[in-house]
């Protein structure tokens, strides 16, 4: 499949610049997820790749060929829209075959293609129905079926699951993951939901304010976020942030703040040494805090439990640490009473430090 | 017991004033007209004095070549007018459905003809069609084209043109509204699916606009059968009977020929024709509602 390359992509509406030089290279058959809060420019980027928005500056290359002046139909791509965008007056079969019919392919080939795709999506019984006669999940499937029947080189998804209810969304997410393994195409997927991003992506691109914040595999982004925004955006429940200061002592390098005084692991200490006495933000994921009554003070946080949210096997504790609030993920079997003061050991590899000025990771 | 009866009657009592007004303002004249159509009725007589002749007026009319001619003129007027107005109105809407600077001014200009009183439209066009001093023939003369006998030999065409000028905006604004309420994403999906501009119009835009277009067309058709003032002012039905549409013939039968019974019978023929279109319009909207309901229940059963 052709690789896609975005070169210094800029989008302006009048005087307002909404995308500030997007630079992105996608590998062959990669599932790329653009993720970010609403207004971050992810949908605009996707729509520019699709050809539905003009490119103000920069260039889009598909398979090495500049395409930013081409019509959408000449870019060899298929797209799934948030509201499905089915043709309401055509039945499912005709919706799915529209592109092929426009290309004047032989009827036998069209029928066979539609049949095959409908079978894989479980739509065979609904081919004669119109979109109005289908439930949300079925419409979503037809939208995907329409893209699949096209047999285009690149698939674009614009928040395809956000109109579904939570249960159906989980189910369709799994089906999407299966589909992407099976069809082996370039996929570009836009979402504001970090769980979709984490579960589906080969590569996540986190966007914010019209800039790419960081890109990489889900694991890279989760373990080594480059700034506080990425750290806080990925992961559920979100990362805890505590204001502190780096202090160098005989016993080692510490990060110290109101209610905590933690010794950094050797690896982290070597980096942090150069930033001695700097004001920093300590980031710790709720899952990197482990209930351990015997942990020493320099490797643990002591927290006052305020609220316990029972989720099932896990519970999320909302606690207080000095002026800050800290969330902790614990096994629901852990005996916890509200108002209790508990000690949680901090995973030394789970401590993230960010400069308090520019919020960049140290 | 009495209370229960009173309670049951309450809604009817509330409706009564409206029913009374409807009967007086609508059913009474209508009944009067139907009743009069069975009589040989001169305006100098009261309806009671007029002789009852049964269906004679209807039968006479049916065999009257002048009436048939008039009916034919009405039908071809309505047919051409609605056809051209639909094509031009929808075409303009498709062309102007975009964001260009000054578009709102342009749209307002386009719907101006509709706001002018029909009599004024008639007078305006009569002057423009004038054989020697009219705008058209003077322009034709200036650019070296032969003069056209607008309101003479080409009278029907001329009144059709005037009506198209006045009523195309009606179809234009309704089509434009329909176009702008189309789902944007479906059109974007069509672009990605490879549809050219024309293919988008034929496969997506027109089919989705169709319900609005059908109702608009029927409304125009009903109106076209009733047109009177413009033609009255422009040609008075002439030359000969060439532009004498039914409404005009009805008014002349009543006032010039003093045959109220025949005029009433003619009105009833027209009424039956219009009723047919109105009922088919209601049937169409009803059918659409039922279809929408059926779809909704089908979806609910699935979930």
From TrEMBL, chain A:
One Pfam entry name: ABC_tran
InterPro entries xref list: AAA+_ATPase, ABC_transporter-like_ATP-bd, ABC_transporter-like_CS, ABC_transpr_MalK-like, ABC_transpr_MalK/UgpC-like, Mo/tungstate-bd_C_term_dom, NA-bd_OB-fold, OB_MalK-like
Domain of life: Bacteria
Gene Ontology MF term list: ATP binding
UniProt entry keywords in alphabetical sequence: ATP-binding, Nucleotide-binding, Transport
SUPFAM superfamilies per the UniProt record, alphabetical: MOP-like (SSF50331), P-loop containing nucleoside triphosphate hydrolases (SSF52540)
CDD domains: ABC_MalK_N (cd03301)
Domain ABC transporter: 4-234
Family: Belongs to the ABC transporter superfamily.
Name this polypeptide is given: Sn-glycerol-3-phosphate ABC transporter ATP-binding protein UgpC
Species of the source: Ruegeria spongiae
Encoding gene (name): ugpC
UniProtKB/TrEMBL annotation, chain B:
SUPFAM superfamilies, per database record: MalF N-terminal region-like (SSF160964), MetI-like (SSF161098)
Domain ABC transmembrane type-1: 71-281
PROSITE patterns documented for this protein: ABC_TM1
Pfam families associated with the record: BPD_transp_1 (PF00528)
Chain ranges passing through the membrane: 12-35, 71-96, 108-128, 155-179, 200-222, 269-287
Membrane topology annotation: Multi-pass membrane protein
Domain of life: Bacteria
Localization of this protein: Cell membrane
Statement: the UniProt record of this protein carries the keyword Repeat: no
Keywords: Cell membrane, Membrane, Transmembrane, Transmembrane helix, Transport
Keyword Protein biosynthesis: no
PANTHER family assigned: BLR7065 PROTEIN, SPERMIDINE_PUTRESCINE TRANSPORT SYSTEM PERMEASE PROTEIN
Family: Belongs to the binding-protein-dependent transport system permease family.
Protein name: Sugar ABC transporter permease
